[in-house]
Amino acid sequence: SAETSPLVVFENIQKCSPNCLRLLLENISSLTVDEDFTVEVIPEINVAVATFIQSLDTEEFVKTCLQHKRVREFKMTARVLELTRTIKAENLPDSISPDYITVYFESARNGGGPVSDVQHFPEENSAIITFCDRKGNT
To answer: Where does the record place a coiled coil (predicted)?
Structure first.
């Protein structure tokens, strides 16, 4: 596919605070956080995901990041997050139904799109959601 993901994963971010990371990404990209991209930090696994709203060559951005002095000093890594049609939802309420999961993830307001399959695992409070295309799971 010629389609490139608008998501970039930054790993090993424990030496860089979330605010520092946002500033660093603004400096590298010349874009503005919240207007042109968002950053979601997942501290439990020392990862952050930047989602670019503004059109950007994410592969070129990753190359630039990996060469940047501060990124190297923080010993962070960056990579384009591969596009997928399937996601795993965790920590779902005990009483949730597969139909509700489907409707929730099809909601455009929630960033969803047409769902082709839901595998519900109530004992794990999780589900695997498969979208009809890659655009419905950002």
So the answer is: none
pLDDT at 138: 43
Structural domain range at position 125? 86-131
Six-digit token string for 90: 């965790």
Helix or strand or coil: residue 92? coil
Q: Total domain count for the chain?
A: 2
| 115: CB partners within 8 A, 6+ apart | 102, 105, 106, 129, 130, 131, 132, 136
Interval 85-106 mean pLDDT: 93
Q: Is residue 66 within 8 Å of residue 75, measured between CB atoms?
A: no
